[in-house]
Amino acid sequence: MKSAALYRAQPRGESPAFQPLYRQIKALITQSLVSGEWRPGEPIPSEIELASRYSVSQGTVRKAVGELAEERVLVRQQGKGTFVATYAGERSQFPFLRINPDAEPMRELTARLLGLERGRDPAAARLLGLSSTATTFLLKRLLMINDRAACYEEIRLPAARFKGLSATVVEQHECMLYSMYEARFGVRMLQAEERVKAVLAPREVAAILHCVPGTPMLLIERVAFTYGQEPSELRRCYCDSQEHHYRNAITG
Amino acid sequence: MKSAALYRAQPRGESPAFQPLYRQIKALITQSLVSGEWRPGEPIPSEIELASRYSVSQGTVRKAVGELAEERVLVRQQGKGTFVATYAGERSQFPFLRINPDAEPMRELTARLLGLERGRDPAAARLLGLSSTATTFLLKRLLMINDRAACYEEIRLPAARFKGLSATVVEQHECMLYSMYEARFGVRMLQAEERVKAVLAPREVAAILHCVPGTPMLLIERVAFTYGQEPSELRRCYCDSQEHHYRNAITG
DNA sequence: GAGTGGTCTAGACCACGGC
DNA sequence: CCGTGGTCTAGACCACTCA
């Protein structure tokens, strides 16, 4: 009746890192996602199938899938099925972007690649959890909001995960990096942490964004994580906040 | 068997804004919170009691309570009961604060009241959803992180909701505003929206924070909401980000 | 030991989507 | 029409807390 690897109910007494059944199911589903058994955009098996596959009730599968849906790893669609979340074909192709225009609505958002290099950067490598001699890519990008230059970004990626990255590849995806990561390299970003500071615009950045050096700017440093909290992208963004702001919603 | 006001299951056909049973229960529970039947820190009735009170199964109550617990309106404690969330007696008395020191850990966080006035401010009143002639309080506050001046804040409150607010009241609560709002005025802040910009420090602010005028600073504007998305606090915070940063976690 | 929330099951019925 | 996810129920057993 039960899979040998699963522990039903709360085992009594000494059980170090016990997880309830639905969490174990959740972990198994995540496993299948990481292994690529079900790829972004594809449907996963129905709840009933999963229930029989793992030898648990539909309710338990529902709870596992429910948590993954809340975390936006999966997407449920009544009448159709449950799908692996994807950035491909979504409305916002810049899902983590927190910059908005002050007055107007956000109409148009485009990016232009300014450069792509490959090299070593010990500090970045360390933040990415790599050895300090690991090679990384460095992308430079300009973000235009409603046809005005808004942000200058420097993005660092571990070369090992992104073998074969080139300017051509980036441009094929119209600079929409997160959907490119997913489609080309199977890396889906799930989560990010940002640190925001106010700085004076360095000369080079001011030149790129067409503002005077010494303009106050937002400096946003981001670490983005894939499945399993693995840091896989580093980003430094200078944003001219004369006509834009960084928006955030705080909940309890 | 059923309360006359509740619609069981999905009623067929024309049903304009239908909500499933557990959402109706959730709304009823929220009602009791707003009305003050159960106050912050107090336990609410057990799931079994609520189930019989609303004539639904325990499972349905669980789902309603579950959502409220996720939103941190309620707090569940196994073996004890379910309680109305409160800021009183919590570790962080500044629950919405996103400012952290760059290098050291956050050891100590204190606030000092610089002033409290009562007056009119049409722009603020409008943002608070009041008539533009409504009176508001204006609090000025200094935030010290690890004994260094970090932020200067201006806080605006609707006078109607905060009748009897005074410097003495604020100081009795050691400047911990959100727990004071709750304890003295029954206003619990659940949610906030912030806009962050980079600006040059105005002279007065620079003087208060002991930095040179023209230092780049974070300007953080916040609207905070109580139960039912009612805007009830406005905040403008200048933060010296030389040794601090604004931190944010982004999830899918 | 009584009462609370937490997990798990089994089964019913529903709304939705597509064949 | 069938299969999907969404809601609701009833009941079992568990772990935790407190008297």
The biggest sheet of chain A, with number of strands, parallel, antiparallel or mixed sense and barrel status, is: 6 strands, antiparallel
By CATH, the topology of the largest domain in chain A is Chorismate lyase
Gyration radius over CA of chain A: 21 Å
Helices and strands of chain A, in order, run as HEHHEEEEHEEHHEHEEE
Query: What is the C-level CATH assignment of the largest domain in chain A?
Result: Alpha Beta
Average pLDDT metric of chain A: 89
Q: Give the strand line-up of the largest sheet of chain A.
A: 5-6-7-10-9-8
Helix content of chain A: 25-40%
* Coarse structural class of chain A: alpha+beta
Count of runs of 4 or more consecutive helical residues of chain A: 7
Question: What is the number of domains of chain A?
Answer: 2
Q: Which homologous superfamily in CATH is the superfamily of the largest domain in chain A?
A: Chorismate lyase-like
Extended strand count of chain A:
11
What fraction of the residues of chain A are assigned to beta strands by DSSP?
25-35%
Q: How far is it from the N-terminal to the C-terminal residue of chain A, by CA?
A: 42 Å
In the predicted model, the low-confidence regions of chain A spanning at least 5 consecutive residues are 1-5, 8-15
Shape of chain A: globular
CATH architecture of the largest domain in chain A: 3-Layer(aba) Sandwich
The greatest interface here is:
A-B, 31 and 31 residues
Q: Looking at the chains present, what oligomeric state does this protein adopt?
A: homodimer
